[in-house]
């Protein structure tokens, strides 16, 4: 195991999409030395204004104490780690710890863990729950699996990313935690769309119904957070339908492997696929409510009323 200083480790960050950019910025704001790689360099350039060093290849981060990866899918993770110019391919040096916060399959995670071990690099699977607004509110959560000893070393750094860091076990179990989380996300959102449309078709405004729900014991941080989108039909993407479908595929695959029946998840996966077929590919997955309304014979209009999402500083 590589020792990592807990006070000021030198950090590498790979992947500055909507999530990765915000998380790298948090580490910079905390005063850390951060070097960044992104496939599209222009997306990472604003981080240079905050003090980040930009590099041209993942391999240029191989001398860092801790390297985070946050990419879209399993093939992307393989590319930036063991592919040409990957962070694990430098002949003379390798990172002390590789922390992957992507949502990828357990099989790919195990493959990268094995490749990292060959280079003397410790590997932590650390998928996150949240989106850019959740990050800004300091409410991101992280599930981590791998060596407990390595986790204990890196935990102070992970704690900079949000409010909750949970060690869930050895090897790749954090992947299953995140996949289960995202399956639940889809099932809950579809259920929320169904009952909201039921209430609206019966004569209750979406704003009034969701205000009641959010103030009840059935309300949650999540239902409150999604309420503005459902009321005002603002589907600026935080998580798209194709990404949700990918996670359903991973979840149902794990269910088959572990012999766990998941009938609700299976039905929801088909509804998500239907929404994609109807053209909802760039919008936020809360657009499931539009398909629910169409199937219920009603057309929705934005209600254009202020709705608290529960993530503002005063909340």
From TrEMBL:
<protein>
    <submittedName>
        <fullName>3-hydroxyisobutyrate dehydrogenase</fullName>
    </submittedName>
</protein>
<dbReference type="InterPro" id="IPR036291">
    <property type="entry name" value="NAD(P)-bd_dom_sf"/>
</dbReference>
<dbReference type="InterPro" id="IPR015815">
    <property type="entry name" value="HIBADH-related"/>
</dbReference>
<dbReference type="InterPro" id="IPR008927">
    <property type="entry name" value="6-PGluconate_DH-like_C_sf"/>
</dbReference>
<dbReference type="InterPro" id="IPR051265">
    <property type="entry name" value="HIBADH-related_NP60_sf"/>
</dbReference>
<keyword id="KW-0520">NAD</keyword>
<keyword id="KW-0560">Oxidoreductase</keyword>
<feature type="active site">
    <location>
        <position position="178"/>
    </location>
</feature>
<feature type="domain" description="6-phosphogluconate dehydrogenase NADP-binding">
    <location>
        <begin position="10"/>
        <end position="169"/>
    </location>
</feature>
<dbReference type="InterPro" id="IPR029154">
    <property type="entry name" value="HIBADH-like_NADP-bd"/>
</dbReference>
<comment type="similarity">
    <text>Belongs to the HIBADH-related family.</text>
</comment>
<dbReference type="InterPro" id="IPR013328">
    <property type="entry name" value="6PGD_dom2"/>
</dbReference>
<dbReference type="GO" id="GO:0016491">
    <property type="term" value="F:oxidoreductase activity"/>
</dbReference>
<dbReference type="GO" id="GO:0051287">
    <property type="term" value="F:NAD binding"/>
</dbReference>
<dbReference type="Pfam" id="PF14833">
    <property type="entry name" value="NAD_binding_11"/>
</dbReference>
<dbReference type="Pfam" id="PF03446">
    <property type="entry name" value="NAD_binding_2"/>
</dbReference>
<feature type="domain" description="3-hydroxyisobutyrate dehydrogenase-like NAD-binding">
    <location>
        <begin position="176"/>
        <end position="289"/>
    </location>
</feature>
<dbReference type="GO" id="GO:0050661">
    <property type="term" value="F:NADP binding"/>
</dbReference>
<dbReference type="InterPro" id="IPR006115">
    <property type="entry name" value="6PGDH_NADP-bd"/>
</dbReference>
């Amino acid at each position: 195991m590589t020792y990592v200083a807990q006070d000021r480790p030198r950090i590498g960050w790979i992947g500055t999409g909507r999530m990765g950019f915000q998380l790298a910025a948090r580490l910079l704001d905390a005063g850390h030395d951060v070097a960044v790689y992104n496939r599209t360099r222009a997306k990472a350039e604003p981080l240079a204004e905050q003090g980040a060093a930009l590099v041209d290849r993942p391999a240029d981060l191989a001398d860092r104490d801790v390297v985070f990866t946050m990419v879209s899918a399993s093939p992307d993770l393989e590319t930036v780690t063991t592919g040409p110019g990957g962070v694990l391919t430098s002949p003379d040096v390798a990172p002390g710890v590789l922390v992957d916060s992507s949502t990828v399959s357990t099989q790919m995670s195990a493959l990268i863990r094995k490749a990292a071990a060959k280079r003397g690099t410790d590997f932590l699977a650390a998928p996150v729950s949240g989106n850019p607004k959740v990050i800004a509110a300091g409410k991101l959560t992280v599930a981590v699996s791998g060596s407990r000893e390595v986790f204990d070393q890196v935990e102070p750094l992970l704690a900079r990313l949000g409010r909750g860091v949970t060690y869930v076990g050895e090897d790749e179990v954090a992947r299953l935690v995140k996949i289960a989380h995202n399956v639940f996300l889809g099932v809950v959102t579809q259920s929320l769309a169904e009952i909201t449309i039921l209430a609206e078709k019966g004569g209750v405004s979406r704003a009034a119904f969701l205000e009641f729900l959010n103030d009840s014991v059935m309300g949650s941080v999540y239902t409150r957070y999604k309420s503005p989108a459902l009321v005002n039909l603002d589907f600026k993407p935080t998580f798209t339908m194709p990404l949700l479908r990918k996670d359903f595929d991973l979840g149902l695959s794990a269910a088959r492997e572990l012999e766990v029946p998941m009938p609700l998840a299976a039905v929801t996966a088909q509804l998500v696929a239907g929404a994609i077929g109807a053209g909802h590919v760039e919008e936020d997955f809360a657009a499931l409510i539009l398909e629910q309304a169409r199937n219920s014979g009603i057309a929705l209009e934005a209600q254009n009323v202020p709705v608290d999402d529960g993530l503002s500083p005063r909340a």
